[in-house]
Design brief:
Number of strands: 4
Protein name: Putative zinc ribbon domain protein
Largest sheet: 4 strands, mixed
Number of helices: 5
CATH class of the largest domain: Mainly Alpha
Organism: Clostridium liquoris
Strand order of the largest sheet: 3-2-1-4
Keywords: Coiled coil
Helix content: over 70%
Distance between the termini: 22 Å
Number of domains: 2
Radius of gyration: 42 Å
InterPro entries: CT398_CC_hairpin, Oxidative_Scav/Glycosyltrans, Zf-RING_7
């Protein structure tokens, strides 16, 4: 294999390794995973809040129910006294009737409050069920996405290591003088080898001079772009004609 081809393969592997390194460093999946996690935690907080609301409603309902039962018991006792122990005591009868009427009104109000709580409980129960399903869906999507992201990152890491090993193999095949030239250009411009396509250096996008083109056509092994200094490599024989 000609040295220029080795240099081109070396550059290509450096490009792939740099690309893989950037992906590994930036990890584009992290942003999406964090977004999904943020959405999950936001809904989870809302879910817990709804559960607390439901618990509070249940406590209030139980308290109201106990109060209603206590009032009903008192009304029953008052009724017994009214019809069995008042005799002709009009004052006592009037007082009991007022108490019974007041307690029945309170019972009615508390029963309406209890009914409102039951209706609210039903609404919140449905909301909790809906939030639960949404949370489960997000959790499943998160786990699935993370699994695929981990696999993707693993492949990128494998590509990085493959390029790294390939670079070591290629470098050992290139003469030290050419390797030094390559490294110096790469340190300055990142890309040391550029293809020549239709007499244009793909590194700087400028047409090479007639002298440079003549050197390539004469078969000189290493030719530099007279504009950017990169090592030129013919894409195919026609490009240098």
């Amino acid at each position: 294999m000609e040295n220029i081809q080795l240099l081109l393969f070396l550059q290509e592997n450096y490009n792939k390794m740099d690309k893989s390194y950037k992906i590994l460093k930036d990890n584009p999946h992290i942003s999406m995973l964090n977004k999904m996690k943020e959405e999950f935690n936001k809904l989870k907080k809302k879910y817990i809040n709804k559960k607390n609301q439901l618990e509070s409603i249940n406590k209030k309902y139980c308290l109201l129910n106990d109060e209603i039962e206590a009032l009903k018991k008192e009304v029953k006792e008052d009724d017994y006294i009214l019809y069995n122990k008042c005799g002709n005591d009009l004052k006592m009868i009037t007082t009991l009737q007022r108490d019974i009427e007041k307690k029945n009104k309170t019972i009615e109000e508390k029963e309406n409050q209890a009914m409102a709580l039951l209706e609210k409980e039903e609404v919140i129960t449905n909301e909790i069920a809906s939030l639960g399903k949404t949370l489960e869906k997000i959790r499943d999507e998160f786990n699935s996405y993370k699994e695929n992201a981990d696999k993707a990152q693993s492949k990128v890491k494998e590509e990085f290591e493959r390029c790294k090993n390939e670079i070591n193999v290629i470098r050992n095949k290139i003469p030290l003088e050419l390797l030094k030239d390559f490294d110096e250009i790469k340190a300055q411009k990142k890309v040391a080898v550029a293809l020549l396509q239709k007499n244009v250096c793909t590194g700087c996008k400028i047409k090479v001079s007639a002298i440079t083109l003549d050197e390539i056509n004469k078969g000189k092994e290493i030719v530099h772009c007279d504009n950017c200094g990169r090592i030129l490599c013919k894409a195919n024989l026609k490009d240098a004609e």
